[in-house]
């Protein structure tokens, strides 16, 4: 009962001691030499630090005698019990044990040697299955050595040479033996012959050098792998003295890399190390960061220009290889390093004309130093491509802008790097101008042009300002040309002479875009019509088609800013008729309701998106188009009497929005841009031109347009003029004559302007009236058509509808409009005849056709429409 119940005055220690006395006294006679037994409950109440041999560790007497130092050791002992590994024994002492820490390099060498021992064991028992497996493992380990730019160990070369001897002996024994080996072992033996033969071919250079002088081969391996063995023997005092005093520079130096391994580079081993790095490119388990670090150290060691050129070519390529994914962009730090190295490469080859970097060269030994004195013609040709590096830099810069949030500060910081990229492109242009390489020169000029064609003059001057302090300045600069227009013109003229048709097309579109950006509408329109790009752009790539769409849109905005409302409406209508404006301009992915897009197609669409700073504001574009459509459609609706003609709209997108606004039961105050324009249209229909003007001018998006004040003034005058036309069309049947001065006061227009508008309407047979200048009135004429005239008019309308229907059927059979190339020969002639029959009818141009499958649709009949507006 004492084990489970204790008296009120008895303590825990007394209870435990009494229990121990009872247990000891009960066993004294039988086993006096045995130690005292533990209490029964101690198995379950034992602490983590208790051992099986310490039964009295919890007593109060020992705890009182333990010193502070012993307590600390006990705590360490308790913790170490749970942190021990499986290989350590439970009774391991608490003394410090020195452990050997090996680097990754030493571990790999030990693993190679262990695999070689496994091969030796397999040879002793003639088990070729084990030998084959171990040899495969050995090849993988040696390949891993090559991937991290480490030399081939002599042990592996020795093993391969020994395997050839063992194979020959095994084959000879197999022929002499009466009993054949089993099928599995025989297959493994045959496969080993092929593997050893392949290894001899792959490591032919190392095997031959080892066979010539094995001791020298091993010494080179030890000096490259374990240079710390030589330095460890130096006394510390001497090392300190060497640090305090200045010592001459040496070719080689040591660096400690990942895992504590030491690498040594020297001038003699540059090409050998460079070859090992190049061979490891693209292979699995290749440490790209390690490769870049090795090449950076090699660049510091390089002495001659040839060595620097070779290392820079490999280093820039390795930086571009760092990011193998197409979807993600290159890290900005790596991009900046690559940009500086490309500049350094261009600087070297531009300063010394005896070195030339070309994509196609004669074969040369990559392990030997080359100089102009030993080459034919005195020019050392190195295999590489600077223009490919420039293209990749530009593409990675664009890709980074596509993937960075445009509304954050990171996008602005990244956009600042465009200046250094533009500087690199101009330096490359100067280099190719000096070396007269026409094809790369055209490509780099095209890259330069696409960086500045869509930018205002202030931004172009900032980009060009960095060229003045450079030692490599191209022949065409802003300072030499005087203005941005002259600079763009000179770059485009250079590309017009190039052999590449794609570069000529893009140069023409950039030139037209720049003219339209500076409000030179007529010049840009004439260039577009004379180039006939609308007829052949369907055969270009998607990026060129996007550039064409952007050029057409900018042309429409230019016409709008110049006050050419009809031209702006007809040009922008082609884009808005497709209802895919963002997709056509590469400013967003348009997802249709019943259209299934594969992930690959969606990924390709997103990769074609333009950076945010190059976007054309779609809301501003829509405002310009709808206002232009309002000023064209509203007077036309007022002049048409029959409902059938009213259904034939010039601008279907505008007419659809207007019909929707008319069906609204309640119209609140305008909120969006569309609401302002629809309410202004209804006010213009009712003759309230002042209300219409105020609604149009209150649109906030006009603030984003250059010269917003002049644009608003232009829109006010156009609304006054179209309001006058709408009033005359609407109320002409109710007047016999109308005073011109009254019209002038009503619409706040000069009398001369009113007279001009009325005379033009009479001349175009839009108004049945005559102008009496003596009295200053307009006399309206009423024409009553006879029954025969009415019937003839109906027949003419039906014949016109029948012709249009037949032409639609013909287009369907030959390929629906646009620039479809499926028909040739007779079909092509019929299609041309049908297009000629359409002529210059007033149905309006439309982007009905297009290059299907490329994500874009283009204008059909843009040339005819723009020629008609001239």
From TrEMBL:
Residues 1-105, 229-255, 813-870 are annotated as: Disordered. Residues 11-31, 51-73 have a biased composition (Acidic residues). Belongs to the eIF-3 subunit C family. It holds the Pfam family EIF3CL_C. This is Eukaryotic translation initiation factor 3 subunit C. Keywords: Coiled coil, Cytoplasm, Initiation factor, Protein biosynthesis. Residues 612-785 form the PCI domain. Its main location: cytoplasm. It comes from Coniophora puteana (strain RWD-64-598). The keyword DNA-binding does not apply. Residues 167-213 form a coiled coil. Component of the eukaryotic translation initiation factor 3 (eIF-3) complex, which is involved in protein synthesis of a specialized repertoire of mRNAs and, together with other initiation factors, stimulates binding of mRNA and methionyl-tRNAi to the 40S ribosome. The eIF-3 complex specifically targets and initiates translation of a subset of mRNAs involved in cell proliferation. GO terms for biological process: formation of cytoplasmic translation initiation complex. Residues 96-105, 821-839 have a biased composition (Basic and acidic residues).
């Amino acid at each position: 009962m004492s084990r489970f119940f204790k008296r009120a005055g008895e303590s825990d220690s007394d209870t435990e001691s009494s229990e121990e006395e009872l247990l000891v006294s009960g066993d004294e006679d039988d086993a006096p030499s045995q130690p005292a037994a533990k209490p029964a409950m101690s198995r379950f109440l034992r602490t983590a630090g208790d051992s099986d041999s310490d039964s009295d560790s919890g007593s109060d007497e020992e705890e009182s005698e333990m010193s502070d130092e012993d307590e600390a050791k006990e705590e360490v002992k308790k913790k170490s019990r749970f942190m021990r590994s499986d290989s350590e024994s439970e009774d391991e002492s608490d003394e410090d044990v020195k452990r050997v820490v090996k680097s990754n390099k030493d571990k790999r060498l030990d693993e190679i040697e262990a695999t070689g021992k496994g091969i030796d064991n397999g040879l002793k028992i003639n088990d070729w299955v084990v030998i084959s497996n171990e040899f495969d493992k050995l090849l993988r380990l040696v390949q891993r050595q090559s991937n991290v730019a480490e030399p081939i160990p002599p042990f592996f070369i020795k093993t391969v040479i020994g395997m050839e001897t063992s194979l020959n002996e095994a084959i000879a024994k197999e022929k002499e033996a009466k009993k054949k080996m089993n099928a599995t072992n025989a297959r493994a033996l045959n496969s080993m012959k092929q593997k050893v033969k392949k290894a001899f071919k792959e490591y032919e250079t190392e095997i031959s050098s080892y066979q010539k002088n094995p001791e020298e081969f091993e010494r080179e391996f030890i000096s490259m792998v374990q240079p710390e063995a030589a330095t460890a023997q130096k006394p510390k005092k001497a090392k300190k003295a060497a640090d305090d005093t200045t010592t001459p520079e040496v070719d080689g130096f040591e660096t400690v890399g990942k895992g504590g391994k030491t690498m040594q580079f020297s001038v003699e081993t540059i090409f050998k190390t460079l070859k090992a790095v190049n061979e490891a490119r693209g292979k699995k388990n290749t440490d790209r960061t390690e490769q870049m670090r090795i090449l950076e150290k090699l660049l510091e060691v390089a002495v001659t220009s040839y060595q620097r050129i070779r290392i820079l070519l490999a280093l820039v390529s390795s930086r571009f290889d760092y990011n193998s994914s197409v979807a993600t962009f290159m890290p900005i730090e790596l991009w900046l390093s690559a940009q500086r190295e490309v500049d350094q490469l261009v600087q070297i080859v531009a300063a010394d004309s005896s070195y030339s970097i070309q994509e196609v060269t004669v074969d040369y030994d990559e392990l030997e130093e080359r100089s102009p004195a030993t080459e034919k013609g005195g020019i050392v040709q190195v295999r590489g491509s600077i223009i490919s590096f420039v293209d990749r830099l530009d593409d990675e810069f664009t890709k980074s802008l596509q993937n960075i949030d445009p509304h954050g500060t990171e996008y602005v910081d990244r956009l600042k790097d465009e200046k250094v990229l533009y500087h690199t492109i101009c330096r490359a242009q100067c280099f190719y101008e000096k070396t007269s390489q026409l094809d790369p020169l055209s490509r780099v000029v095209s890259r330069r042009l696409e960086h500045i064609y869509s930018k205002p003059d202030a931004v172009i001057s900032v980009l060009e300002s960095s060229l003045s302090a450079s030692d490599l300045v191209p022949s065409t600069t802003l300072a030499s040309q005087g203005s941005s227009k002259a600079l763009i013109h000179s770059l485009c003229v250079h590309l017009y002479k190039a052999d590449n048709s794609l570069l000529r097309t893009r140069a023409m579109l950039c030139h037209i875009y720049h003219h339209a950006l500076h409000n030179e509408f007529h010049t840009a329109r004439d260039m577009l019509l004379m180039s006939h790009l609308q007829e052949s752009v369907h055969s270009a790539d998607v990026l060129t088609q996007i550039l064409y769409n952007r050029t057409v849109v900018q042309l429409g905005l230019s016409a709008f800013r110049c006050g050419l409302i009809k031209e702006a409406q007809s040009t922008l209508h082609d884009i808005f008729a497709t209802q895919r404006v963002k997709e056509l301009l590469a400013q967003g992915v348009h997802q249709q309701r019943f259209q299934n897009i594969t992930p690959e197609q969606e990924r390709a669409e997103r990769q074609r998106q333009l950076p945010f700073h190059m976007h054309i504001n779609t809301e501003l574009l829509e405002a310009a188009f709808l206002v232009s459509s309002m000023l064209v459609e509203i007077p036309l609706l007022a002049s048409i009497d029959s409902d059938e003609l009213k259904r034939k709209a010039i601008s279907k997108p505008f007419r659809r929005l207007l019909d929707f606004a008319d069906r609204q039961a309640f119209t609140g105050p305008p909120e969006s841009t569309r609401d302002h324009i629809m309410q202004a249209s209804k006010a213009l229909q009712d003759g309230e031109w002042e209300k219409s003007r105020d609604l149009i001018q209150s649109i906030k998006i006009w603030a984003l347009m250059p010269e917003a004040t002049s644009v608003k003034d232009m829109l006010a005058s156009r609304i006054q003029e179209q309001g006058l036309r709408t009033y005359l069309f609407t109320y002409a049947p109710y007047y016999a004559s109308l005073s011109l001065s009254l019209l002038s006061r009503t619409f706040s227009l000069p009398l001369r302007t009113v007279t001009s508008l009325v005379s033009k309407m009479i001349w175009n047979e839009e108004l049945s009236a005559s102008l009496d200048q003596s009295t200053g009135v307009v006399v309206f004429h009423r024409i009553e058509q006879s029954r025969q005239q009415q019937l003839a008019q109906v027949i003419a309308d039906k014949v016109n509808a029948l012709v249009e229907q037949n032409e639609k059927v013909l287009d369907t059979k030959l390929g629906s409009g646009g620039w479809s190339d499926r028909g040739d020969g007779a079909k092509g002639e019929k299609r041309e005849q049908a297009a000629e029959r359409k002529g210059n009818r007033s149905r309006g141009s439309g982007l009905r056709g297009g290059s299907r499958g490329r994500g874009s649709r283009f204008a059909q009949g843009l040339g005819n429409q723009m020629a008609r507006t001239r």
